[in-house]
Amino acid sequence: MTEIDLSAYARDGDGSRRLRGYLARPDGRGPWPGVVVLHEVFGVDGEMRRHADHLAELGYLALLPDLYSDGGMLRCVARTMRAVSTGHGRAFTDITAARSWLLAQPDCTGRIGVVGFCMGGGFAIAAAPEFDAAAPNYGLMPPDLAAAVRGACPTVASYAARDRMLKGAAPRLKRALDAEGVPNDVKEYAAAGHSFMNTGPVGPRALRVVLRAMGTGPHPESAADAWRRIEAFFGEHLGTERADRDADGPTAADDDTER
Questions:
Q1: Around Cβ 29, how many Cβ atoms within 10 Å?
Q2: Between residues 205 and 41, the one the model is more confident about
Q3: What is the DSSP string of 57-74?
Q4: Which residues contact 91 (CB under 8 A, 6 or more apart)?
Q5: Which of 62, 83, 196, 249 has the most CB within a 10 Å radius?
Q6: What is the pLDDT of residues 44-64, one digit of tens each?
Q7: What pLDDT digit, counting tens, does each position of 120-163 carry?
Q8: Residue 150 class from Cβ within 10 Å (0-12 exposed, 13-18 middle, 19+ buried)?
């Protein structure tokens, strides 16, 4: 896996001057569809890299831009959270830069998806009109959700019933996507909490007790199902060799899911 300098794709606008990214490349020879991976509020860490690596294993050229490149988490988190709330700002320029970098690669098919977690899930919802498929996972809700999903790409979203920060988010997103006629698969996992797709605790150690009390943490069974749904949905809307091979098998639409 490779660290990528994305600065040339961001500096012409209001993006990060030293934009960095983590690239996970599938085995074998491309071209592959691309996926921009958007990190949680705690930034690019081992969990986020693992998510990018998993997408590469599924056959995607996965690029994880560091939205805190110019200054680190402590200096950038407030500005980045403000961007996801307002729908504009440096983070969106950085996300577009990551997409543009993938489009410029000869081993990319030109079909690009976006996957986001927590804060990154909010960006995945807001940036969905720029992409061919989106997968927000426990994504924060933009204030004007109806406007945010207008023109959105097909969306597969995963939420958690025990997530105290996002009560009722799944049905809200489902209603908004349906109202705009956006193809979607939105599911809420009854036994899971926030960040359930991670494999271990994240964030500063001093905050972990608080985060656990808020219903945050891994839930492997729900995570496995969420990844299976993403794989099937992205296979349909982005296309991969594996998805084409399995096209006659069961898909997410065949499941009895909670929506």
A1: 7
A2: 41
A3: HTT-EEEEE-TTTTTHHH
A4: 67, 79, 80, 83, 84, 123
A5: 62
A6: 999 999 999 999 999 999 999
A7: 999 999 999 999 999 999 999 998 999 999 999 999 999 999 99
A8: middle
